[in-house]
Amino acid sequence: MSCCGRSPMPSQARSGVFHNTPGTPGSLASSAQASAAPTDPWMQYVGGTALTVTGPVTGRVYRFAAPGARLSVNRHDAASLLYVPSLKPSQA
Question: Domain containing 72: what range?
């Protein structure tokens, strides 16, 4: 007897409930992750000359060649780069 007082499902119905076709879970998960994945933010250099900074998480080197330069930065580095006084968040 099951915990809710109902009789258990026949074994044929039970096996059909959990049957997955190949590729379905992966494709569903991939599309859900792709639609929910955040985009990498942009940073703008507002200093006076040029700036090279290394992302502390990824190790990527970002080269802002001139004042006003904007670069897309890895989202894992972005929070730390906000502590650089001459870098500000920007739009693409």
Answer: 42-90
Helix (H) or strand (E) holding 70: strand 70-72
One-letter amino acid for residue 69 of the chain: A
Domain presence at residue 50? yes
Phi first, then psi, for residue 75 (nearest 5°) are -60, -25
CA distance 71 to 92: 8
* pLDDT, tens digit, 9 for 90 and up, residues 48-80: 999 999 999 999 999 999 999 999 999 999 999
pTM (whole model) above 0.70: no
Count of structural domains, the chain: 1
Query: 45: which strand partners?
Result: 87
